[in-house]
Amino acid sequence: MVDLVAFGLGASIVLSIVALHYARGTGWESSQDISQEVLERRAATVVETDFPEPMNRSIGGGGGAVAAVGGADGEEAGELEGEDEDSMSPADIPEDEVEYFEIEYVKQGETIEVANNMTVLDGGEESGMDLPYACRQGQCVSCAGHITNGGNSEDYVVHDNQQMLDDGELDDGYTLTCVAYPIADFSVETGEAP
Ligand code: FES
User: Fold this and answer.
1) Cα-to-centroid distance, 26 and ligand 1 (Å)
2) Which is it for the CA torsion 103, 191, 148, 97, positive or negative?
3) Is residue 11 part of a domain?
4) Are 26 and 19 in contact (CB under 8 A)?
5) CA–CA separation, 179 vs 139, rounded Å?
6) Is residue 150 part of a domain?
7) Residue 100 neighbours by CB distance under 10 Å
8) Is the C-beta atom of 163 inside 6 A of ligand 1?
9) Quick check: CB of 142 below 6 Å from ligand 1?
10) Which of 14, 85, 180, 182 pairs with 126 at a CA distance of 20 to 30 A?
11) What CATH number is attached to the domain comprising 121?
């Protein structure tokens, strides 16, 4: 009797497993792909602007930015070119545009012609004069001289970055010969500092 019950139980379990094994599922279907729909709906909510959307920066915004930067560069280049012209040294005057001026070196007793792309110091030295100097960069007064024609020394020379003489000293006719390029005829006493 007990064995029959156990057999019946075992058989029903086996049958259940077999039935489950062969039973067909309800069939799973993936839900509808709504990603495109969601994207379109989101796109519709974006406000229309004249500016490129963030995702378009590489197309529009980036290009615009580059153009803007390019424009700024252009302006900068223009400014720099202007600055270059302003800061152009008389030493850069090309040979075919050079003018010559007569300079009397009073203490040396010599009068020579010096090109306007050459300093008063260089011009004298090229003619064999032994003139005082130290830095040759307008940063000391070793090469100072006094233009004796009267008036401001800058009526006769252009100083290319002299850093030592103040306006009053220039007014008195003093010059730094190492950075002074002639723009007129004049007489100069070298070795004369204010
Ligand atoms: S040598 Fe120094 S300023 Fe001329």
Assistant:
1) 101
2) positive
3) no
4) no
5) 10
6) yes
7) 14
8) no
9) yes
10) 85
11) 3.10.20.30
Q: What is the C-alpha radius of gyration for the chain, rounded to an integer number of angstroms? A: 46
Q: Which residues have a Cβ under 8 Å from the Cβ of 115 and sit 6 or more positions away?
A: 98, 99, 100, 123
Provide the pLDDT for residue 11. 58
CA–CA distance, 175 with 181 (Å, rounded to integer):
10
Does the residue 106 lie in any domain?
yes
Domain count, the chain: 1
- Token duo for residue 106: 């009073």
The model's pLDDT over 57-75, given as tens digits with 9 standing for 90+, comes to 444 444 444 444 444 444 4
Domain range for residue 156?
98-190
For a mutational test of ligand 1's pocket, the pick from 125, 139, 161, 190, i.e. the residue with the most ligand atoms closer than 8 A to its C-beta, is 139
- Residue 84 makes CB contacts below 8 A (sequence gap 6+) with none
- Residue at 24: amino acid letter: R
Closest CA relative to residue 119, chosen from 93, 97, 140: 93
Amino acid letter, residue 45: T
Type of residue found at 118: M
Q: Would residue 6 count as lying in a domain? A: no
The string of pLDDT tens digits covering residues 28-61 is: 666 667 777 777 877 777 666 555 555 544 444 4
